[in-house]
Specification:
The chain contains twelve helices and eleven strands. The protein is α/β, with parallel strands linked by helices. The chain has a six-stranded parallel β-sheet with strand order 7-6-8-9-10-11, with helices on both faces. Helix 1 (11-19) crosses helix 11 (297-317) and helix 4 crosses helix 6 (153-164). Nicotinamide-adenine-dinucleotide binds next to helix 4 and helix 6.
Amino acid sequence: MIKIAFFDAKDYDINSFNKNLTDEFEVKFFETHLSIDTVSLAAGFDAVCVFVNDMIDKAVIDELVKLDIKLIALRCAGYNNVDIEYAFKKIHVVRVPAYSPYAVAEHAMALLLTSIRRIHKAYIRTRDFNFSLSGLTGFDLHGKTVGVVGTGKIGRIFIDICKGFGMNVIAYDKFPAKDSGIEYAELDEIWAKSDIISFHCPLTKETEHVVNADSIEKMKKGVVLINTSRGALVDSEALLEGIKARKIGAACLDVYEEESDVFFHDFSGHIVNDDVLARLISMLNVIVTSHQAFLTAEALENIADTTYANIREFFKDGKSINEVCYVCDKIATCPQEHKGKCF
Ligand code: NAD
């Protein structure tokens, strides 16, 4: 039986993983994040299963190796929270590359529509029997230009949704998809031409703070930014300054660079210490959801299914088609791709 320790396990994780559990696996759910302080909980298990805010740095990897853990199974697509380069040849890492790109792309559009049509304001007003329309003027999406950064699985679905709204789409990708029919442009052109910019690229050294004071300066006045990718794509302080300067028309954020200390937890009875987040949330043109874009029934089912399949395959054959390593990250096309084994 393969023993799996789940970290940062929430009620919806426990439900979906228990529903898909078979007698090949023995599972234990820990509410806490995986970190150097909690890694000892993994003792006696074969694999750890982690999510976006578990920090698997060098020290945690060393401890996992000492505990004879064979596999880090990410139950998400992004893997910026794992030191993949350090893990190479020490411990294998698998992920769920696609569980429902529709969930994330649709959430990005939901945020955009909510923001520009002021649905969040209207909802609060009508619940209070305030039927005034004052201050609720929005704008049509039809005919507007949307810049999409990252044209992988989620980015392309978002592009299709935008086309359905009659929007003009331009996109940037470090590795443009040939024959996709997507109109690619350099980042400076995206900044200069877009009324709306949506981010669907991974967090890497290159994309970290791709939204910063310089890029904001190059954007159109009133631009709407949507980030459902990873928080650190956006320099939050620069974003705040851009909003205060009336340069940024609205920001729709499902992710935030310092989210690991706050997102997924209930702080409604507490004082939040993060001044930047508090100020962003206080802005009438900022909508924050707490890394919720993936959260659909279909996605949870696929996450549980693929995670168990990855773990099963790894312990049976010593490889997995969903293994990640830093080589893939560096050259985009993994030379080992077809062998499904990184080392
Ligand atoms: P994907 O791998 O299919 O696509 C990513 C695209 O980004 C690829 O086309 C790649 O070429 C491109 N890219 C790589 N480096 C780039 C760079 N420097 N600049 C521009 N583009 C670059 O991934 P996906 O499934 O579409 O997911 C995209 C991102 O969405 C993930 O990396 C993850 O961070 C995020 N995500 C968020 C949630 C959520 O709940 N908010 C859920 C799933 C994924």
